[in-house]
Design a protein that fits this description.
single chain; 337 residues; alpha+beta; Double Stranded RNA Binding Domain; four-stranded antiparallel beta sheet; 7 strands; flat; disordered C terminus; RNA binding
Protein backbone atom coordinates (compact mmCIF):
# COMPACT_ATOMS: atom_id res chain seq x y z
CA UNK A 1 0.00 0.00 0.00
CA UNK A 2 1.20 3.51 -0.80
CA UNK A 3 -0.23 6.95 -1.64
CA UNK A 4 0.29 8.75 -4.94
CA UNK A 5 -2.36 11.46 -5.20
CA UNK A 6 -0.39 14.61 -4.30
CA UNK A 7 2.89 14.75 -6.24
CA UNK A 8 2.96 18.56 -6.03
CA UNK A 9 3.24 18.61 -2.24
CA UNK A 10 4.54 15.13 -1.34
CA UNK A 11 7.78 13.99 -2.90
CA UNK A 12 7.09 10.27 -2.20
CA UNK A 13 3.93 10.61 -4.33
CA UNK A 14 6.04 11.96 -7.19
CA UNK A 15 8.41 8.98 -6.88
CA UNK A 16 5.44 6.59 -6.90
CA UNK A 17 3.93 8.21 -10.02
CA UNK A 18 7.25 8.02 -11.85
CA UNK A 19 7.41 4.29 -11.13
CA UNK A 20 3.79 3.75 -12.23
CA UNK A 21 4.27 5.80 -15.41
CA UNK A 22 7.40 3.85 -16.35
CA UNK A 23 5.55 0.56 -15.82
CA UNK A 24 2.57 1.74 -17.88
CA UNK A 25 4.88 2.72 -20.76
CA UNK A 26 6.87 -0.49 -20.53
CA UNK A 27 10.06 1.37 -19.58
CA UNK A 28 12.63 0.26 -16.99
CA UNK A 29 12.01 1.44 -13.46
CA UNK A 30 13.51 4.89 -12.80
CA UNK A 31 15.04 3.86 -9.46
CA UNK A 32 17.19 0.98 -8.31
CA UNK A 33 16.26 -0.74 -5.01
CA UNK A 34 19.22 0.99 -3.35
CA UNK A 35 18.10 4.42 -4.61
CA UNK A 36 14.54 3.79 -3.38
CA UNK A 37 15.81 2.75 0.06
CA UNK A 38 18.05 5.83 0.27
CA UNK A 39 15.19 8.12 -0.83
CA UNK A 40 12.82 6.57 1.72
CA UNK A 41 15.38 6.99 4.51
CA UNK A 42 15.96 10.63 3.54
CA UNK A 43 12.23 11.44 3.42
CA UNK A 44 11.54 9.67 6.70
CA UNK A 45 14.35 11.52 8.46
CA UNK A 46 12.93 14.88 7.36
CA UNK A 47 9.37 13.89 8.30
CA UNK A 48 10.54 12.80 11.74
CA UNK A 49 12.44 16.07 12.19
CA UNK A 50 9.34 18.03 11.18
CA UNK A 51 7.15 16.10 13.62
CA UNK A 52 9.66 16.64 16.42
CA UNK A 53 9.88 20.36 15.69
CA UNK A 54 6.09 20.70 15.68
CA UNK A 55 5.76 18.72 18.89
CA UNK A 56 8.46 20.84 20.55
CA UNK A 57 6.71 24.04 19.47
CA UNK A 58 3.41 23.02 21.04
CA UNK A 59 5.21 21.66 24.10
CA UNK A 60 6.98 24.97 24.68
CA UNK A 61 3.75 26.89 24.20
CA UNK A 62 1.99 24.62 26.71
CA UNK A 63 4.87 25.06 29.15
CA UNK A 64 4.63 28.83 28.88
CA UNK A 65 0.93 28.72 29.71
CA UNK A 66 1.54 26.29 32.57
CA UNK A 67 4.31 28.50 33.97
CA UNK A 68 1.89 31.42 33.93
CA UNK A 69 -0.67 29.39 35.84
CA UNK A 70 1.96 28.35 38.38
CA UNK A 71 2.69 31.97 39.22
CA UNK A 72 -0.88 33.19 39.44
CA UNK A 73 -3.26 30.32 40.14
CA UNK A 74 -4.94 29.14 43.29
CA UNK A 75 -4.11 25.45 42.84
CA UNK A 76 -7.14 24.22 44.78
CA UNK A 77 -9.44 25.98 42.32
CA UNK A 78 -7.83 24.50 39.20
CA UNK A 79 -9.78 21.86 37.26
CA UNK A 80 -7.97 18.54 37.47
CA UNK A 81 -6.60 18.64 33.92
CA UNK A 82 -4.98 22.03 34.48
CA UNK A 83 -3.75 20.97 37.92
CA UNK A 84 -2.13 17.86 36.38
CA UNK A 85 -0.25 19.99 33.83
CA UNK A 86 1.01 22.32 36.54
CA UNK A 87 2.10 19.42 38.73
CA UNK A 88 3.91 17.65 35.89
CA UNK A 89 5.70 20.87 34.95
CA UNK A 90 6.81 21.40 38.55
CA UNK A 91 8.11 17.83 38.83
CA UNK A 92 10.06 18.16 35.59
CA UNK A 93 11.47 21.52 36.70
CA UNK A 94 12.56 20.06 40.03
CA UNK A 95 10.90 22.64 42.25
CA UNK A 96 7.35 23.39 43.30
CA UNK A 97 5.76 26.79 44.03
CA UNK A 98 4.36 27.33 47.50
CA UNK A 99 1.11 25.49 48.03
CA UNK A 100 1.40 22.97 45.21
CA UNK A 101 2.68 20.08 47.36
CA UNK A 102 -0.03 20.80 49.94
CA UNK A 103 -2.77 20.77 47.32
CA UNK A 104 -1.35 17.56 45.84
CA UNK A 105 -1.51 16.00 49.32
CA UNK A 106 -5.10 17.20 49.68
CA UNK A 107 -6.06 15.56 46.39
CA UNK A 108 -4.24 12.39 47.45
CA UNK A 109 -6.23 12.22 50.69
CA UNK A 110 -9.46 12.87 48.80
CA UNK A 111 -8.63 10.05 46.34
CA UNK A 112 -8.62 12.57 43.49
CA UNK A 113 -4.99 12.09 42.49
CA UNK A 114 -4.83 9.91 39.40
CA UNK A 115 -2.18 7.29 38.58
CA UNK A 116 -0.14 9.42 36.17
CA UNK A 117 0.28 12.24 38.69
CA UNK A 118 0.76 9.89 41.64
CA UNK A 119 3.54 8.05 39.81
CA UNK A 120 5.25 11.26 38.66
CA UNK A 121 5.50 12.65 42.18
CA UNK A 122 6.35 9.26 43.71
CA UNK A 123 9.09 8.43 41.20
CA UNK A 124 10.57 11.83 40.33
CA UNK A 125 9.41 14.44 42.87
CA UNK A 126 12.18 16.65 44.25
CA UNK A 127 12.89 17.94 47.74
CA UNK A 128 9.70 20.04 47.83
CA UNK A 129 7.68 16.82 47.50
CA UNK A 130 9.78 14.61 49.81
CA UNK A 131 7.35 14.44 52.77
CA UNK A 132 4.52 13.70 50.34
CA UNK A 133 6.57 11.01 48.58
CA UNK A 134 7.15 9.26 51.91
CA UNK A 135 3.40 9.33 52.55
CA UNK A 136 2.82 7.91 49.08
CA UNK A 137 5.30 5.14 49.83
CA UNK A 138 3.35 4.16 52.94
CA UNK A 139 0.09 4.35 50.97
CA UNK A 140 1.54 2.05 48.32
CA UNK A 141 2.66 -0.43 51.00
CA UNK A 142 -0.95 -0.56 52.26
CA UNK A 143 -2.24 -0.97 48.70
CA UNK A 144 0.55 -2.97 46.96
CA UNK A 145 -1.75 -3.95 44.08
CA UNK A 146 -1.10 -0.42 42.72
CA UNK A 147 2.67 -0.94 42.49
CA UNK A 148 2.54 -2.73 39.14
CA UNK A 149 0.74 0.28 37.64
CA UNK A 150 3.49 2.58 38.94
CA UNK A 151 6.09 0.37 37.25
CA UNK A 152 4.10 0.58 34.02
CA UNK A 153 4.23 4.39 34.14
CA UNK A 154 7.99 4.25 34.75
CA UNK A 155 8.43 2.04 31.69
CA UNK A 156 6.22 4.25 29.52
CA UNK A 157 8.43 7.21 30.44
CA UNK A 158 11.57 5.29 29.50
CA UNK A 159 10.20 3.89 26.26
CA UNK A 160 8.30 7.00 25.19
CA UNK A 161 5.29 4.88 24.32
CA UNK A 162 3.39 1.66 24.99
CA UNK A 163 4.83 -1.12 27.11
CA UNK A 164 5.14 -4.71 25.87
CA UNK A 165 4.49 -7.09 28.74
CA UNK A 166 6.43 -9.75 26.86
CA UNK A 167 9.52 -7.71 25.94
CA UNK A 168 9.71 -5.11 28.72
CA UNK A 169 8.27 -6.80 31.83
CA UNK A 170 9.80 -10.12 32.86
CA UNK A 171 8.14 -12.01 35.69
CA UNK A 172 9.53 -15.06 37.42
CA UNK A 173 6.93 -16.69 39.67
CA UNK A 174 7.66 -20.13 41.07
CA UNK A 175 6.53 -22.44 43.84
CA UNK A 176 9.02 -22.64 46.70
CA UNK A 177 9.11 -26.31 47.77
CA UNK A 178 11.98 -25.64 50.17
CA UNK A 179 9.49 -24.11 52.64
CA UNK A 180 6.63 -25.65 54.57
CA UNK A 181 3.12 -24.94 53.38
CA UNK A 182 2.18 -23.32 50.06
CA UNK A 183 4.67 -20.57 49.26
CA UNK A 184 5.49 -18.73 46.03
CA UNK A 185 8.45 -16.59 45.09
CA UNK A 186 8.16 -13.70 42.62
CA UNK A 187 10.67 -11.39 40.96
CA UNK A 188 10.05 -8.76 38.31
CA UNK A 189 12.55 -7.22 35.91
CA UNK A 190 12.05 -4.17 33.67
CA UNK A 191 13.96 -4.23 30.38
CA UNK A 192 14.42 -1.11 28.23
CA UNK A 193 17.16 0.41 26.05
CA UNK A 194 19.70 -2.34 26.89
CA UNK A 195 19.00 -1.68 30.60
CA UNK A 196 17.63 -4.18 33.07
CA UNK A 197 16.46 -3.39 36.60
CA UNK A 198 15.01 -6.10 38.81
CA UNK A 199 13.38 -6.55 42.16
CA UNK A 200 14.48 -8.80 44.97
CA UNK A 201 12.53 -12.03 45.28
CA UNK A 202 9.49 -11.77 47.53
CA UNK A 203 7.80 -14.79 49.15
CA UNK A 204 4.07 -14.95 49.78
CA UNK A 205 1.34 -17.55 50.27
CA UNK A 206 -0.14 -16.97 46.81
CA UNK A 207 1.18 -15.82 43.43
CA UNK A 208 -0.81 -12.57 43.38
CA UNK A 209 0.57 -11.33 46.68
CA UNK A 210 4.10 -12.39 45.74
CA UNK A 211 3.89 -10.37 42.51
CA UNK A 212 2.49 -7.33 44.33
CA UNK A 213 5.27 -7.37 46.93
CA UNK A 214 7.97 -7.78 44.27
CA UNK A 215 6.52 -4.85 42.31
CA UNK A 216 6.35 -2.79 45.51
CA UNK A 217 10.03 -3.47 46.23
CA UNK A 218 11.10 -2.44 42.73
CA UNK A 219 8.93 0.71 42.74
CA UNK A 220 10.57 1.86 45.99
CA UNK A 221 14.00 1.07 44.54
CA UNK A 222 13.34 3.17 41.42
CA UNK A 223 11.98 6.05 43.54
CA UNK A 224 14.90 5.96 45.96
CA UNK A 225 12.54 5.41 48.89
CA UNK A 226 12.60 2.85 51.73
CA UNK A 227 11.54 -0.65 50.69
CA UNK A 228 8.39 -1.44 52.68
CA UNK A 229 7.68 -4.73 50.90
CA UNK A 230 7.65 -7.92 52.95
CA UNK A 231 7.89 -11.70 52.85
CA UNK A 232 5.40 -14.08 54.40
CA UNK A 233 6.65 -15.92 57.47
CA UNK A 234 7.90 -19.30 56.31
CA UNK A 235 9.74 -22.22 57.87
CA UNK A 236 12.31 -24.06 55.72
CA UNK A 237 11.73 -27.77 55.21
CA UNK A 238 14.57 -29.79 56.61
CA UNK A 239 14.35 -32.38 53.83
CA UNK A 240 13.99 -29.98 50.89
CA UNK A 241 16.62 -30.35 48.15
CA UNK A 242 18.15 -27.24 46.67
CA UNK A 243 16.31 -26.28 43.49
CA UNK A 244 18.48 -25.54 40.47
CA UNK A 245 16.42 -26.23 37.36
CA UNK A 246 14.18 -23.38 36.23
CA UNK A 247 10.58 -24.22 35.38
CA UNK A 248 10.11 -25.11 31.73
CA UNK A 249 7.41 -22.45 31.29
CA UNK A 250 9.88 -19.60 31.94
CA UNK A 251 11.05 -17.97 28.69
CA UNK A 252 14.65 -18.78 27.66
CA UNK A 253 16.20 -15.33 28.21
CA UNK A 254 14.68 -15.08 31.67
CA UNK A 255 15.73 -18.64 32.52
CA UNK A 256 19.37 -17.90 31.67
CA UNK A 257 19.26 -14.79 33.88
CA UNK A 258 17.83 -16.88 36.73
CA UNK A 259 20.65 -19.40 36.39
CA UNK A 260 23.11 -16.52 36.70
CA UNK A 261 21.27 -15.20 39.79
CA UNK A 262 21.34 -18.68 41.38
CA UNK A 263 25.07 -18.93 40.89
CA UNK A 264 24.91 -21.69 38.31
CA UNK A 265 26.55 -19.46 35.68
CA UNK A 266 29.27 -16.89 36.43
CA UNK A 267 30.22 -13.90 34.29
CA UNK A 268 27.15 -14.00 32.06
CA UNK A 269 27.46 -11.48 29.24
CA UNK A 270 25.63 -10.57 26.03
CA UNK A 271 27.17 -9.06 22.89
CA UNK A 272 25.31 -7.83 19.80
CA UNK A 273 26.29 -7.24 16.17
CA UNK A 274 24.16 -5.99 13.30
CA UNK A 275 24.49 -6.55 9.55
CA UNK A 276 22.53 -5.68 6.45
CA UNK A 277 20.86 -2.51 5.12
CA UNK A 278 18.67 -0.37 7.36
CA UNK A 279 15.44 -1.83 5.98
CA UNK A 280 16.55 -5.46 6.39
CA UNK A 281 18.82 -5.68 9.41
CA UNK A 282 19.95 -8.96 10.93
CA UNK A 283 21.06 -8.92 14.55
CA UNK A 284 23.43 -11.50 16.02
CA UNK A 285 23.53 -12.05 19.78
CA UNK A 286 26.21 -14.03 21.60
CA UNK A 287 25.72 -15.06 25.22
CA UNK A 288 28.45 -16.67 27.27
CA UNK A 289 29.59 -17.46 30.77
CA UNK A 290 31.22 -20.11 32.97
CA UNK A 291 29.54 -23.02 34.72
CA UNK A 292 30.50 -22.54 38.35
CA UNK A 293 30.54 -26.27 39.09
CA UNK A 294 33.19 -27.10 36.48
CA UNK A 295 34.59 -23.81 35.18
CA UNK A 296 33.47 -24.89 31.69
CA UNK A 297 32.95 -22.08 29.19
CA UNK A 298 29.41 -22.11 27.74
CA UNK A 299 28.32 -19.97 24.81
CA UNK A 300 25.61 -19.73 22.18
CA UNK A 301 24.65 -17.48 19.27
CA UNK A 302 21.30 -16.50 17.86
CA UNK A 303 20.08 -14.35 14.96
CA UNK A 304 16.90 -12.43 14.29
CA UNK A 305 15.40 -9.24 12.81
CA UNK A 306 15.55 -7.49 16.22
CA UNK A 307 17.88 -7.56 19.19
CA UNK A 308 15.19 -9.20 21.29
CA UNK A 309 14.62 -11.94 18.72
CA UNK A 310 18.36 -12.59 18.45
CA UNK A 311 18.74 -12.74 22.23
CA UNK A 312 15.81 -15.14 22.53
CA UNK A 313 17.36 -17.44 19.90
CA UNK A 314 20.74 -17.36 21.67
CA UNK A 315 19.09 -17.91 25.05
CA UNK A 316 17.21 -20.94 23.80
CA UNK A 317 20.47 -22.68 22.88
CA UNK A 318 22.38 -21.42 25.94
CA UNK A 319 19.65 -22.69 28.26
CA UNK A 320 19.98 -26.18 26.75
CA UNK A 321 23.75 -26.12 27.31
CA UNK A 322 23.37 -24.96 30.94
CA UNK A 323 20.70 -27.51 31.79
CA UNK A 324 22.73 -30.28 30.15
CA UNK A 325 25.56 -29.31 32.48
CA UNK A 326 23.22 -29.46 35.47
CA UNK A 327 21.91 -32.87 34.40
CA UNK A 328 25.45 -34.23 34.14
CA UNK A 329 26.16 -32.85 37.59
CA UNK A 330 23.14 -34.68 39.03
CA UNK A 331 24.26 -38.02 37.54
CA UNK A 332 27.68 -37.64 39.05
CA UNK A 333 29.70 -36.89 35.92
CA UNK A 334 30.18 -33.38 37.28
CA UNK A 335 29.92 -32.08 40.80
CA UNK A 336 26.59 -30.32 41.39
CA UNK A 337 26.46 -26.51 41.52
Amino acid sequence: YTHATSPIRRYPDLVTQRILLAAALGHPGPYSPEELAATADHVNEHLDAERRAKAEFFKQRAHAETARQMETADFASLPYKQFARVLQFAVERGEAPAGLADDTARRLDARELQLREFASVYLYGGADFQPLRERMNRRLAREPQQAQSVLNVYLQDRLGGPVSNEANVRWTVEAEPAYEGPLFGAQVALVFDETRVESPKRLQRNKKDARNQAALALAAQLAGLPDLSSDAAAKPRADAPRKLLVDAAVNPAEAVQIYAARGVVDGLSWDFEVDGPSHERVFTCRGEGLLRSTGEHVAAEGRGPTKQAAKTAASLELRVVIEAGLALGETGSRSPA
